[in-house]
Write a structure and sequence with these properties.
It is a single chain. By secondary structure, this protein is mainly α. The chain is built from four helices and no strands. Helix 1 (4-19) packs across helix 2 and helix 1 (4-19) crosses helix 4 (69-95). The chain is globular, with a radius of gyration of 15 Å. It starts with a helix and ends with a helix.
């Protein structure tokens, strides 16, 4: 599973690559729209990139509340954690 640090690194690389955001502007507190100058179309592109990164579909409602870089990382961690729980539950049901 991806660590928080690895998620941050991947997210920063995506922001730099896709939107030419300077690395020094990408901090946990950086606001996606105000500080990094993303718009709604950029947010969709970012979600597509993140889906590729985690190998899982991200529903719009799961990402809608994300306002900062830290919020995005929290969202990804939550999705990965939920998926890990799902796989654990399926494994325990097969053993029963």
């Amino acid at each position: 599973m991806l660590t928080r640090q690895r998620i941050i690194e991947e997210l920063a690389a995506s922001l730099e690559e896709l939107f030419e955001v300077p690395h020094e502007k990408i901090t946990p507190e950086a606001r996606l729209y105000e500080d990094l100058d993303l718009d709604s179309i950029d947010a969709v592109d970012l979600v597509v990139k993140l889906q590729t990164m985690i190998g899982r579909r991200i529903k719009p409602e799961e990402f809608r509340a994300a306002r900062t870089v830290s919020d995005v990382v929290d969202c990804i961690e939550r999705l990965l954690h939920d998926e890990a729980d799902l796989h654990a539950d399926q494994g325990s049901q097969q053993l029963a």
